TrEMBL record:
The lineage of its organism: Eukaryota, Viridiplantae, Streptophyta, Embryophyta, Tracheophyta. The chain crosses the membrane at residues 50-73, 93-116, 123-142, 154-175, 182-200, 206-223. The gene is LOC107760645. Pfam families: Rhomboid. This is RHOMBOID-like protein 13. Belongs to the peptidase S54 family. The keyword Magnesium does not apply. GO terms for cellular component: membrane. It is a multi-pass membrane protein.
Length: 271
């Protein structure tokens, strides 16, 4: 018999939290009748400044089959949290999950840009990506490099050698779920190899917190700029002293004259 589920959750705390978050978001999407176009990421929305969609698209699932497949694979990949003896572990998992979410999302947009601008494939302008697959495929790839003897268990009965799992799963999902994002999965594999081979390295708590902080800032302000939600509490007050004179130029004939004036007591907010 295997370990009780409670002990496995304790051994995979970060993985369990991510699965809980994705499941809760899926439930909310279903209850609120939200479509993938509201949370997914496409080239058009990226160009329009909806950078917050890199985050929402990663943690959102519209289909229950997609959610179950991704979370089943992610649960098996949670073994990364237990491999602290070979330089992995919980901190490594958290650090590079953030890297995978951000870089794989940006790489997808870059691929769309090349296909649209260089190859004139306008179809990819409106293709909307959604789901945690990029991160799942990234962790498959990292584990295939760091622990090639491991096995990936899917749905509790399908076991794949981890060394071939990224590409086997890429083909498998393309056949079983034709609408699955091939480029999204491929981007996760590419970023995963970059991390596994050490091309992207050096993440520690300081850099992880810094990156997370900037991610939150960009997320909030891109959300406000896109006017998707009303964020009136995000306003910048003018940093001016009404008692100080201001300088302005007034046109006078062919030249200009310099005039000093005092700011009025009431000023407008800079939003």
């Amino acid at each position: 018999m295997g370990k009780p589920l409670f002990y496995e959750i304790l051994e995979k705390p970060a993985t369990s939290c991510v699965i809980g978050i994705c499941s809760a978001i899926w439930f909310y999407i279903q209850k609120s009748n939200i479509g993938y176009s509201h949370v997914g990421m496409s080239y058009e929305t990226a160009v329009e400044g909806h950078h917050w969609r890199i985050i929402t698209s990663a943690f959102s699932h519209i289909s229950v089959l997609h959610l179950v497949f991704n979370m089943s694979a992610l649960w098996s990949l949670g073994v990364v949290e237990q491999l602290g003896d070979i330089g992995l572990g919980v901190e490594y998992y958290l650090h590079y999950t953030l890297v995978l979410v951000l870089l794989s999302g940006m790489l997808v947009v870059a691929m769309y840009h090349i296909l649209i601008q260089k190859f004139k494939l306008e179809y990819f302008r409106r293709v909307t990506a959604v789901g945690y697959s990029c991160v799942v495929f990234g962790w498959m790839t990292i584990l295939s490099v760091k622990q090639p003897s491991s096995k990936l268990n899917l749905f509790g009965f399908l076991s794949l050698p981890i060394s071939f799992a990224p590409f086997e799963s890429l083909i498998f999902t393309s056949i079983i779920v034709p609408q699955a994002s091939f480029l999204g999965h491929l981007s996760g594999i590419i970023v995963g190899y970059a991390v596994g081979w050490g091309l992207i390295h050096g993440m520690n708590n300081y850099w992880a917190v810094t990156l997370l902080g900037w991610t939150v800032v960009v997320f909030v302000f891109s959300l406000k700029k896109s006017a998707t939600f009303d964020l009136n509490f995000l306003e910048i007050e003018p940093v001016t002293d009404p008692s100080l004179p201001s300088v302005r130029f007034l046109a006078a004939g062919n030249g200009r004259t310099l005039q000093m004036s005092t700011l009025a007591d009431t000023g407008s907010n800079l939003v």
